[in-house]
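To whoever picks this up:

The parser on our side crashed when reading a file containing two proteins. I've narrowed it down to the boundary between the first structure block and the second sequence. Both blocks are reproduced below exactly, byte for byte. First block:
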Amino acid sequence: RFLIASAAALASGGSVHAADAIVAADPEALSYVRVCDAFGKGYFYIPGTETCLKVGGYLRSDSLFGESPYTGINDGWVPLSRATLRFDAVSDTEYGELHGFMEHRYQVVNGAQTFTLISSYIELGGFRAGFSDSRFDKWLDSAGNIVNDDVIDFSPPRTNQISYVFKAGNGISLLVGAEEGNGSYKTNYAPIPTVPYDEGDWPHPVVGAKIKQDWGGFTIIGGYDAHAETFAGKARLDLVLNKTFSVFAMGGYQS
């Protein structure tokens, strides 16, 4: 009798509250981020815009033991941890591709934390303005895929710059630009042995040319140091041996 009465009570209770039942709203349609493949892999459309964005980066951890290549002093164990973030935004305009890029680096070496802006520039139709590696370095694809390229000082540091690249077709490109410079230069004057580049008002002009073909490529660049009043030039020859191996040779001159 108890079970029957309980069942009846539940049934009657359900009928009493039927009018007060809450109707669940229809689920909203899922809105996925659209893939943007017009500028390469990894891009997606920023919601509500026609701008494509690519977010990337890397993590790095390494350790150095023994003598420092910079000072020759035995530093023992020097651990390094690094996190790098890259943001690359591209959109089409009536003047060509509008490209914005920035790269940030967070690093800890021997417990000392640093934050470094690696690059921050805007490109439009061949023009570039902003902060990045010197064109004297990147125009020749640096020194290849190596971990540490600063033991031998073969290139200026990162700098503010403006430049224009003209693509003539058939793999031929021409470069003209001006750079602020960074760091310091030697004066050979004892009372003031070095002078920072950012104390000067005149930019440093750079010009370059390159050709890229199936067999490889040839690249040249020249720059004039407006403060030190010297000229420097570099040339690089690339040869593709097969689908797996390629070699290059690079040389430079400084007045």
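<<boundary where parser fails>>
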Amino acid sequence: MNAPAPLPSSTKAREYRDAFDATFAAPPPPPAPPVVALLLVRVDGSLFAVRRSEMTGFVRGDAIAPAPGRASAFLGLAEMRGEIYPVWSLAGLLGRPLPPPGSSCWLVLVQNSAGAPCALACAAVDKLIFVPESDLTAPARPGAPALAPWGAESVPVVDVPALLADIFKRKQ
């Protein structure tokens, strides 16, 4: 049998082959720095950030049923996804003025460490941003929020686990 004739060599084919081979000779690029997804929400006219990893979702707060409660930040109950959520004003929990009763709001859905659902009411949801984890500024003192850069300003990052611990401590 005769061996097949070699294919004609073109300079373009050789360039492609060399470029392909060079990709395996170069070291791999460094891994991308870890990023944190943050949902920017409005509370009393100011921006705050909530870590996406600490939420289970967010929805319009159209149907909050008033319910009795000792805390002024407790707004009532809402049914979503087949579960009953106690609704708390994020403004009230952060020590800011409460919005007027019946104000339109968004609910940030969260769970405590035991899996109990809870909703945090805020005035508006602005956007989801991704920030390198190394760009988050650690709290200046215990109990102070971490800060995330956003444009020319720094946005406080809500410590959801601490808020939930405070809420569920109040219930006991």
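After patching the parser it read the second block fine. Strands lie at 35-43, 46-51, 57-60, 74-80, 83-89, 106-111, 117-122, 124-132, 146-150, 153-157. The longest strand covers residues 35-43.
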